Amino acid sequence: MAFLSDTLTRVKPSPTIAVTTKAAELKAEGRDVIGLGAGEPDFDTPQNIKDAAKAAIDAGKTKYTAVDGLAELKAAICDKFKRDNGLDYTPAQVTVGTGGKQVLYNALVATLNAGDEVVIPAPYWVSYPDMVLLAGGEPVIAEATADTAYKLTPDALEAAITPKTKWLIFNSPSNPTGAGYTWDELKALTDVLLRHPNVWIMSDDMYEHLVYDDFEFCTPAQVEPALYDRTLTVNGVSKAYAMTGWRIGYAAGPKDLIGAMRKIQSQSTSNPCSISQWAAVEALTGPQDYIAANNKTFQRRRDLVVEMLNACDGITCPVPEGAFYVYPSIAGCIGKTSAGGAAITDDEAFATALLEEKGVAVVFGAAFGTSPAFRVSYATSDDALREACTRIQDFCAGLR
Ligand SMILES: Cc1ncc(COP(=O)(O)O)c(C=O)c1O
Questions:
Q1: pTM exceeds 0.70 for this model
Q2: pLDDT mean over 146-168
Q3: Is the pLDDT at 70 greater than 80, yes or no?
Q4: Where in the numbering of this chain does the Aminotransferase class I/classII large domain appear (predicted)?
Q5: Which of 272, 287, 302 represents a domain boundary (last residue)?
Q6: Which residue among 172, 197, 245, 328 has its CA within the 20 to 30 Å range from the CA of 311?
Q7: Residue 32: exposed, middle, or buried by beta-carbon count in 10 A (0-12, 13-18, 19+)?
């Protein structure tokens, strides 16, 4: 009898973490490697947030809290949803977890039975399909291509829905493409969902505040109020407030679903770190001006990277609306051979050869369900990005 569970055989380790590990190993060997795999802002957590955490420690706010979040944090989250999204939620409709990741996972575990399907638009964040599998469900991939700037079309959504569909996981701006849906684009998708009353929407709004060029963020429950009763709106402090290590995410939705998620959390992790929760209260209620300042930096880097990648032979890179990723297509590179003699048969071969021959670490598109492409995270310095893109240009120029 196998000791490890059968469920575990259904999932794979995170490919993004694998790339980061490989780049770190090469660096440790003394190789000159530029990592473009990071999924976190390179900015420090703002001082007012750090101070709030220190004050929480000094005030002895170091005990268990309510399982799914402090009353003060839930109040701040309700205010945030009203202020930013025009959505009314009561604290009983709000849950706080150890990162958005735990919140998404709790929701899936709380709702999926064997055979239930979850529609996941590709390119997708690497964790969605595996979380669905761990929770006993079946991921159904609805692919979006470079032609629509990697945004899901209503027809592709309609085609993916079956009588077994329980959820659509929606993510805008997207990890890995940075694509953000306009109000009209999202409305076209919510119109499809109105025709399927059994399908719920899990909206992952983690990159809400990281948007550029006056792009206006919107979320499904706001665009189509008729879907409010079957939408879980997920968000967190990791990306906008540079708080990835603090591990606070949250969601709002129907009370019964929130109660079911609380039950799972009460028997697994209990409350997220009390100190981080107080820091998150400060993040959501304190000054917000550094978000715009950080976004200026991100936008400058996005423009730099998109321009340099589009100058590479064989690469086309859409200009994304948000997040800190770009997702260039490398269709023009497939079938060629690198200067170092590697056959570029697919995007994994491209990424491997790029790392070995030029010391640039990117994550290949197959990891996100759409090939041939790769993901660049531009959450690193302008100098590193310029050097990395120059090396990618050299690599592409050497393809024969
Ligand atoms: C699309 C998306 N959703 C959710 C998360 C989870 O964020 P966290 O668990 O740090 O709140 C991430 C992190 O990379 C992400 O990219």
A1: yes
A2: 96
A3: yes
A4: 32-392
A5: 287
A6: 172
A7: exposed
